[in-house]
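2024-03-11 09:14:02 INFO worker-7 job=invfold-0412 stage=load source=structure_tokens
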């Protein structure tokens, strides 16, 4: 069938001892560059005047695991460093993070966002951070709008930032429109930047990440973190960071910029509100202590790089709550009725079980109208739809017990004839098997009465 080679390739790329989303279970990655997620007014370098804008396309690079068959995958948006003055989504650490995430089964996004910091102006700094927050929201809304095209789960979009990228993740997670800095409203010559979700594109979705990871980041005001801001947060910070203070102070040691509040103080604020968060402080370490300077390797990844990746992916895995649901499990539909989970962990009406084992290889997926997906052989489910060499293994037995349709069409060729009778006899004798069930009365037995019925169907058809 058309997807057989793709599925077999996926199995070949899986390591036997790997856990998807925790370990690198894919060998290769597919990268799609310069995907435009919006358009917005930008400032020309060197960012001296806020009124002098021109429209630019906002773009991202998308990394996917090669040969993957799942189509409802979580997303991590990686946001680069650069002090809102420099940087781009091809920096060494962003490429390495995106590749590592895609090899673990995520769809990874390396984001470009608008720059624009005048290092001599606190007014400029507040506007630069806010533009980045708007772009982060626009990227999330774009991914939700086109979740089907990219094979992603719109309910599992995370953000992971480094330095300035962490400023974006933290402010996007914890600030609301009524908490906008005064500078974002502009003045007689500078434009009002508008609401957080008002720039980049007009897709009508919530632009908040499900959880965030902040590497050496900070926030402009601790009071922006409210009790209802329940976005799980993991923070990494060096205790001797001179660029972004772990407690409070001027970023870049620049007294012209606004005071910010680093990971220690964010952790205290979140904990006081009983909001889920973790902090990992490395004593004596500086900025970007995973081995980069402004996003580029400085002597290669440090020993901390691998620890941060392991802890970061473990944190996000725990946000997925995958361990609680498995294909074939019962679930609750929106109307309160009981349904079943397909390979994408989408909940479907049990009446749609007739779709399983129908010989059609579903090529779409996701929790949408296309219907339940059971073409994920790497999870032990295929029902013979997408892989001619499927061995029949299915622990949930959802495919074993599917009735043959039309009635007694044991070989699935659309008609009942002597070939089906032979399959029925072989099954009774224990010398054969079927891809569907002719036990229509669900008594657990196939016997000579079923063969008699099959013969009668053939005779009636000939008559």
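2024-03-11 09:14:09 INFO worker-7 stage=emit residues=463
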């Amino acid at each position: 069938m058309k997807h057989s080679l793709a599925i077999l390739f996926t199995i070949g790329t899986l390591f036997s001892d790997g856990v998807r989303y925790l370990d690198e279970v894919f060998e290769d990655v597919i990268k799609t560059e310069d995907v435009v997620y919006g358009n917005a007014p930008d400032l020309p370098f060197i960012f001296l005047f806020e009124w002098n804008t021109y429209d630019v396309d906002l773009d991202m690079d998308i990394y996917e695991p090669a040969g993957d068959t799942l189509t409802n995958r979580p997303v991590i948006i990686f946001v680069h460093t650069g002090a809102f003055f420099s940087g781009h989504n091809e920096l060494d650490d962003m490429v390495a993070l995106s590749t590592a995430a895609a090899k673990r089964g995520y769809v990874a996004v390396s984001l470009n966002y608008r720059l624009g910091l005048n290092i001599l102006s606190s007014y400029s700094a507040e506007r630069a951070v806010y533009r980045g927050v708007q772009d982060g929201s626009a990227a999330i809304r774009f991914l939700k709008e086109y979740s089907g095209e990219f094979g992603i789960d719109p309910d599992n979009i995370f953000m992971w930032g480094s330095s300035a990228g962490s400023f974006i993740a933290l402010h996007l997670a914890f600030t609301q429109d009524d908490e906008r800095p005064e500078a974002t409203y502009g003045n007689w010559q500078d434009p009002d930047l508008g609401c957080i979700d008002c720039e980049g594109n007009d897709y009508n979705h919530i632009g908040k990440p499900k959880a965030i990871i902040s590497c050496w980041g900070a926030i402009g005001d601790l009071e922006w973190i409210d009790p209802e801001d329940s976005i799980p947060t993991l923070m990494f910070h060096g205790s001797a960071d001179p660029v972004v203070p772990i407690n409070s102070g001027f970023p870049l040691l620049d007294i012209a910029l606004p005071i910010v509040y680093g990971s220690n103080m964010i952790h205290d604020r979140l904990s006081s509100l009983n909001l889920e968060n973790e902090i990992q402080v490395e004593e004596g370490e500086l900025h970007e202590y995973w081995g980069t300077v402004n996003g580029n390797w400085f002597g290669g990844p440090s020993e901390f790089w691998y620890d941060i990746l392991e802890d970061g992916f473990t944190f996000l895995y725990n946000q997925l709550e995958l361990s609680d649901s498995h294909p074939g499990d019962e679930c609750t539909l929106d109307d309160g009725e009981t349904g079943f989970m397909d390979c994408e962990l989408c909940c479907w009406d049990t009446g749609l079980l007739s779709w399983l084992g129908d010989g059609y290889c579903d090529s779409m997926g996701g929790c949408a109208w296309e219907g339940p997906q059971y073409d994920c052989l790497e999870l032990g489910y295929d029902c013979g739809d997408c892989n001619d060499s499927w061995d029949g293994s299915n622990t949930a037995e959802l495919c074993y017990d599917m009735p043959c349709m039309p009635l007694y069409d044991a070989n699935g060729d659309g008609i009942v004839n002597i070939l089906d009778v032979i399959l029925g006899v072989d099954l009774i004798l224990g010398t054969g098997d079927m891809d569907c069930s002719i036990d229509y009365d669900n008594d657990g037995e196939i016997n000579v009465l079923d063969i008699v019925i099959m013969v009668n169907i053939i005779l009636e058809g000939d008559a």
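2024-03-11 09:14:09 INFO worker-7 stage=report msg="The domain at 4-324 is CATH 3.40.50.1820 (Rossmann fold)."
2024-03-11 09:14:10 INFO worker-7 job finished
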